[in-house]
Amino acid sequence: MKKKLILMLAFGFVFCLSISAVHAASVTMDPANPSIAPGGSFTINLLYDFDLPTTGVLGGIIDIGFNDEVLNLGTVAWDTNFLTEIDGALSQLPTDNSDGTTGALDGWEFANFSPITGTGTIGTVNFQVDPFAILGETDITIAANSWADGVGGSITPDLTGATVSVVPIPGSILLLGSGLVGL
User: Fold this and answer.
1) What is the pLDDT of residues 119-159, one digit of tens each?
2) Is the Cβ–Cβ distance between 116 and 86 less than 8 Å?
């Protein structure tokens, strides 16, 4: 009887742990799947969800990669609300290390004296699809390093990049279609 009670208590404890909320930090790109014609431009928002209510996030470094033959980098900017949140403790925009083939925004750094929690926008990145880009899909990737929580522990955020679909210009499809009808 005693063994059965201990076993039931152990099972109950494990069950309670398994249904408790999982807290994490994440950074995602929005929109995740833009469809853009060659020569068109678009903006990616870098969104955060720092669901670490007991520790928060003190800071970290974000790197963004993209195909430099398809996407031309435009402007990169902090979200003003995020800058207010970090109160200017450390805010460094990334360096454009693109080489004509591989696009790279390296070292988008932020840090704060007190932990950051909640959700919001870190910043924006503007791109233009090369006018001579081949139709298809290309990825925008995101990597993170040196992230710390509010008690100095190392954390690994969940990261979600974006996939850009380069699609034909609608007018060119209409022109092609009307040309085929004329044959």
Assistant:
1) 999 999 999 999 999 999 999 999 998 999 888 899 999 99
2) yes
- 139, 140, 164 from 168: Cα distances, Å: 18, 20, 13
Contact, 94 vs 62, CB < 8 A?
Answer: yes
**Closest CA relative to residue 117, chosen from 51, 45, 163:** 51
Q: Which amino acid is at 50?
A: F
b/e per residue 111-133 (b: at least 16 CB within 10 A)? bbeebbbeeeebbbbebbbbeeb
Query: Structure pTM?
Result: 0.78
Structure tokens at 124: 């924006």
Single out the residue of 44, 19, 23, 46 nearest to residue 117, CA to CA: 23
Query: How far, rounded to the nearest angstrom, does the alpha carbon of residue 146 sit from its chain's CA centroid?
Result: 16
Once rounded to an integer, what is the mean pLDDT over residues 17-28? Answer: 60
Is the pLDDT assigned to residue 14 strictly greater than 80? no
Cα 183 to Cα 22: distance, rounded to the nearest angstrom = 62
